[in-house]
Structures are given as structure tokens and as C-alpha cells.
């Protein structure tokens, strides 16, 4: 924990508080029952404010009763001593001075009431025990009373003045104790606050206070007592203009979602963080700025979450646009086939068709029906992709694994694609084993193989071959599909497995361009849910190799 260190002054003050507790003024006074009458309450308050005890005496003597006893005993002993001194040295002057000294001691130690008692008692003793026997017969009677009156006034003045001094002293100690307690409470609040709090000095921008939250944000680097530029150079350059503005103008400055780059791990790598920051001037008693307080609340998670939501909303808008376009494409093509067939039928029915015209009509109808069927298959595939993506998202995709021969299934997929694309060269590279048994869902694995093959044929030229290779490993089988298409860069290779992602700049070269960007996302889920892995190796301009692995049946 980092904070400004005032250990010495704090400990000294705590000692003073322990020596001059509030109870020395309030709790150690004579407790009287004030009752319910205002007079007794005022009397009680006056009593508590006028009597206190010295902290330098032992505990038994720190009682008001000791003050009253001393107020009686000290003047008596003093006057008794003066009485005997007068008998030895009658010419002795200023005989009241020792009594005044005693009154001062009692007043400084125990307050106004014991001091008042000492004054009155000392006046009585001086007037009736010391002064009369030694007063010259030539003195007037009025001079005696004048001396007693002045002595009483002096004693009362000393009592009141010393009481005020001691009360001010006790109040100062209490005020300092309260201030230090408030400082300690404020320090605990700052240290435990769930925000980053920093206090910088005015001139050199040295760290005077750094709470644990800010210390963690700075990678737990030792910053206390050091300059901002010295310890956090990557941060200083970003906030120096704002700090200078606050120091110059003396006005606070706030920044919402302030983006900063901080080396949180002390490895030179800068981490992007967002803070709501308030820069507050720290004002001295004369109003001048003697420092800057920085309060920052880390809102990185909130900002990143909002950016993610915004990204998802953008993806949703794009998805709706793509889905609407892709679902409308086969419908539009099928509608055109129906319209062409309808016009042809109307022309034939409106005349006397010959056998040849009827044959042409039937041939056209058959051709258009095949086209409509193909478009409906495309639309059906798009709908299935949407359903599969929804099931994957909800973790409800059904798999029916069973033991089967992957070689036969793979050969069937390749033959189907050769039939659909007779002008394309599709190579099948197999190991010597005639049977490779795995436990998986055969229909879903075929779906993955067909997706890999369809993409390889779609995004490569007609004269370029496509190769399917099966490789056996120690405990798994690997199936890869290699094409000589445009290839993918590193960023595209990372994102190609995401939902709705379609690599920019990659265009269809053969076949239909209808796609929702869900095929590889579904393939990845199918393989990983059966204990396998997927991946791609690609070089821009040289083609791509998409692969997946599945565990072999150990039995």
C-alpha cells in the first residue's frame, strides 16, 4: 500500500492525544446530576469547561479532587512558610509573590475553579495570618484593604488567563487529533476506493500518493516519490497536456472513456485501457495550485462490451441483408424459369403445334424444372445452414456417432463431386489401408467433406486440380482438401471459421455464389464435437489446404 508517510508526526500526535485525552476535560470532571432544569445544565456545562486535570501527573493525581485539595494545601503551606520567614526577617518584601506562584500552578494544572479557590484562600491567609502582625502602625487601614483587593484581582486575572491558555492548549490538541483522525479516515477511504487515485506534486509531478488500484494498473511498479516521466513514460506523454492545463488554470478537467496505453506487465507491451478520468487541482490555503489529483475509473470492460455489441449489431444487419439476398436469389431464378415456361406454353396452346414444337416444349419444361429443382436445393441448403448454425449456437446439434469405414464414405463424396463437376480434376490420395474405422456421425462427416470440396471447386479455376488426401497418424486420421485458388492471408485464416464471415476480395470463380458464410463455422462445430480438430494452411496466390482430424477407433 502506498501513501504519504507522516509516521513521526502522527505518532507524536497520538502520544499527545493519549496524554491529553478528551476525557481529561470531560470525563474526569466531577459528575453531577444536572437534572432536568436549565440551571443545573448550565452549571454542569460551566463546571466541565472550567475544570481539567494535568496529564503529566500520575493517574491517581489526575482527578479534580486533587486540584481542590492542592488549592487549599498549597496556599496554606506557602503562607505558613512566609509567616516563619517574616519572623526571621521582618524586612522581607513581596510576601505575596509565593502565594501568586501557587495560584498560577493550581490554575494551569486544574483550571478556573480550583484557581479561584486558591486565590480566595490565599487572600484570607495573607490578610489574617501574615500581613496584620507585620503592618506598621503608621499605615492607614485603607492601604491594607487596597493591598488585599489588588492581590485578589491579580489572583483572579492569573486564574482566568491561565485557564484560557490551558483550554486553548487542550482544544488545539483535540483539534489536531481530530484532524489526524480525519486524515487517517480519508487515507483509508482513498486506499480502499475501487477507483485509481493519484496525487502529483506541482512542480516535478512526483507521486505523493498512489492507491492500490492505481498501483495495480501501473504494473505494481515502485512509483511513490518518483516523477511521472521517470516511472511511466508511456503514460506521461498521453496526459501531460491535460495536467499542465489543470495546473495553469486551476480548473478541473474530465475525460470520458479516455483511451490510454499502459505497460501493465512491465514487459514493454502496451495494453489498451479505457478510463473515465477526472483531473482535480489540489489547492493550498492561499488558493494556489500545489498539486494535481487524478481519479480514474477503469471502464475497459464496459467499452469493450459496447464495442462487441455494436459489432454484433453490425453483423446482424449484414446477416439480415445477406440472408435476404441469398434466399431471394434461388427464388428469383425459379420464378424466371416458371415465367419462361408459362409464356412458351401459352404460345403453343394458342396455335396448332406440330410434333416438333411439342417436343421442344417438353424439352424446355424439363430443363426449367431441373433448374427450379436446383434452385430449391440451394434454398434448402441455406435453410439447413441457418438451422444448423442456430443449433450450434444453442448447443443442440444432434450427432449420431457409430463405427464405420471412413474410406468408403470419402470415396462416395469424391465420386458425387466428380459427377456434378465432370470437367474438373479431383484427385484422391489414400493410404494403403483399405479400411479406416472411426466412430463418428457419417452424415455429418460427409457434410464437412462436401463443404471442403465445394469451396475448393468454387474458388479455383476450372483447369486447376483439387486434391483430397487421407493421412494416418498414431491415434487419428487426417483428411485434407487442397486447391490452387487465391489463398488467404493470416487475418483471413483466423476469421474464416467465424459465423457469417466471408473473406473480402475472394470471389467465386465457378458455380453459384450463394452462401451465408456459415459452412465452415458448422464444419468446425461438427468436427470439434466429435473430438477432432480443424485448420487451414494457405499462402496468398498459391491456394489453400483445409484439413480436419478425427480420432481412430482404438478397438
Automatic annotation (TrEMBL):
Residue ranges annotated as transmembrane are 43-59, 65-85, 92-110, 116-132, 144-162
Name the Gene Ontology molecular function terms of this record: ATP binding; phosphorelay sensor kinase activity
- Quote the catalytic activity from the record: ATP + protein L-histidine = ADP + protein N-phospho-L-histidine
Where are stretches of biased composition, namely Polar residues? 10-25
Primary localization class, coarse = membrane
EC annotation?
Answer: 2.7.13.3
Gene3D superfamilies found in the cross-reference section: 1.10.287.130, Backbone structure of the membrane domain of e. Coli histidine kinase receptor kdpd, Histidine kinase-like ATPase, C-terminal domain, PAS domain
UniProt xrefs under InterPro entries: HATPase_C_sf, HATPase_dom, His_kinase_dom, HisK_dim/P_dom, HisK_dim/P_sf, KdpD_sf, KdpD_TM, PAS
User: How does the entry describe its membrane topology?
Assistant: Multi-pass membrane protein
State if Membrane is listed as a keyword: yes
- Which intervals hold domain PAC? 254-311
Q: Which residues form a coiled coil?
A: none
State the compartments where it is located.
Membrane
The segment annotated Disordered runs over 1-25
A single GO cellular-component term from the record reads: membrane
Domain Histidine kinase: from-to ranges: 322-554
Q: Tell me which UniProt keywords the record has, alphabetically.
A: ATP-binding, Kinase, Membrane, Nucleotide-binding, Phosphoprotein, Transferase, Transmembrane, Transmembrane helix, Two-component regulatory system
User: What NCBIfam families does the annotation carry?
Assistant: sensory_box (TIGR00229)
Protein name, please?
A: histidine kinase
Query: Which organism is this protein's natural source?
Result: Ktedonobacter racemifer DSM 44963
Amino acid at each position: 500500500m502506498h501513501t504519504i508517510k507522516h509516521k513521526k508526526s502522527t505518532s507524536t500526535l497520538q502520544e499527545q492525544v493519549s496524554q491529553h485525552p478528551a476525557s481529561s476535560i470531560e470525563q474526569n470532571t466531577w459528575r453531577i446530576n444536572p437534572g432536568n432544569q436549565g440551571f443545573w445544565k448550565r452549571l454542569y456545562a460551566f463546571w466541565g469547561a472550567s475544570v481539567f486535570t494535568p496529564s503529566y501527573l500520575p493517574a491517581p493525581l489526575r482527578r479534580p479532587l486533587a486540584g481542590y485539595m492542592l488549592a487549599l494545601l498549597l496556599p496554606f503551606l506557602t503562607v505558613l512558610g512566609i509567616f516563619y520567614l517574616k519572623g526571621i526577617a521582618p524586612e522581607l518584601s513581596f510576601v505575596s509573590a509565593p502565594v501568586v506562584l501557587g495560584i498560577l500552578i493550581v490554575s494551569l494544572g486544574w483550571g478556573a475553579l480550583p484557581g479561584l479557590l486558591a486565590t480566595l484562600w490565599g487572600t484570607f491567609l495573607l490578610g489574617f495570618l501574615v500581613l496584620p502582625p507585620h503592618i506598621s502602625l503608621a499605615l492607614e487601614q485603607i492601604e491594607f484593604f487596597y493591598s488585599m483587593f489588588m492581590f485578589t484581582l491579580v489572583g483572579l486575572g492569573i486564574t482566568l488567563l491561565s485557564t484560557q491558555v490551558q483550554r486553548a492548549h487542550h482544544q488545539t490538541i483535540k483539534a489536531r487529533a481530530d484532524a489526524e483522525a480525519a486524515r487517517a479516515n480519508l487515507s483509508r477511504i482513498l486506499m480502499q476506493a475501487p477507483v485509481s487515485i493519484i496525487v502529483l506534486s506541482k512542480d516535478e509531478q512526483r507521486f505523493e500518493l498512489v492507491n492500490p488500484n492505481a498501483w495495480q494498473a501501473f504494473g505494481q511498479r515502485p512509483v511513490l516519490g518518483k516523477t511521472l516521466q521517470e516511472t511511466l513514460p508511456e503514460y506521461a506523454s498521453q496526459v501531460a497536456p491535460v495536467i499542465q492545463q489543470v495546473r495553469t488554470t486551476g480548473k478541473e478537467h474530465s475525460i470520458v472513456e479516455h483511451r490510454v496505453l499502459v505497460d501493465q506487465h512491465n514487459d514493454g507491451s502496451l495494453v489498451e485501457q479505457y478510463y473515465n478520468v477526472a483531473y482535480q487541482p489540489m489547492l493550498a490555503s492561499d488558493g494556489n495550485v500545489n498539486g494535481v489529483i487524478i481519479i480514474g475509473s477503469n471502464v475497459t470492460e464496459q467499452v469493450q462490451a459496447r464495442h462487441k455489441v455494436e459489432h454484433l449489431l453490425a453483423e446482424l444487419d449484414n446477416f439480415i441483408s445477406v440472408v435476404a439476398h441469398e434466399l431471394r436469389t434461388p427464388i428469383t431464378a425459379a420464378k424466371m424459369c416458371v415465367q419462361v415456361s408459362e409464356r412458351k406454353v401459352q404460345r403453343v396452346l394458342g396455335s396448332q403445334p406440330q410434333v416438333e414444337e411439342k417436343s421442344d416444349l417438353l424439352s424446355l419444361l424439363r430443363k426449367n424444372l431441373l433448374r427450379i429443382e436446383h434452385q430449391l436445393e440451394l434454398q434448402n441448403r441455406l435453410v439447413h445452414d441457418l438451422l444448423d448454425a442456430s443449433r450450434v449456437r444453442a448447443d443442440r446439434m444432434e450427432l449420431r456417432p457409430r463405427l464405420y469405414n471412413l474410406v468408403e464414405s470419402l470415396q462416395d463424396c469424391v465420386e458425387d463431386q466428380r459427377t456434378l463437376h465432370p470437367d474438373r480434376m479431383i484427385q484422391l490420395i489414400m493410404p494403403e489401408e483399405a479400411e479406416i474405422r472411426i466412430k463418428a456421425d457419417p452424415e455429418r462427416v460427409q457434410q464437412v467433406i462436401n463443404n471442403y470440396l465445394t469451396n475448393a471447386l468454387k474458388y479455383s479455376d476450372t483447369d486447376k486440380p483439387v486434391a483430397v488426401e487421407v493421412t494416418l497418424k498414431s491415434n487419428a486420421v487426417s483428411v485434407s482438401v487442397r486447391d490452387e485458388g487465391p489463398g488467404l492471408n493470416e487475418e483471413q485464416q483466423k476469421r474464416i471459421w467465424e459465423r457469417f464471415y466471408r473473406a473480402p476480395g475472394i470471389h467465386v470463380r465457378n458455380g453459384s455464389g450463394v452462401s451465408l458464410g456459415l459452412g465452415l463455422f458448422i464444419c468446425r462445430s461438427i468436427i470439434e464435437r466429435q473430438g477432432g480438430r480443424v485448420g487451414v494452411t494457405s499462402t496468398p496466390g498459391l491456394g489453400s489446404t483445409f484439413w480436419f482430424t478425427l480420432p481412430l477407433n482404438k478397438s
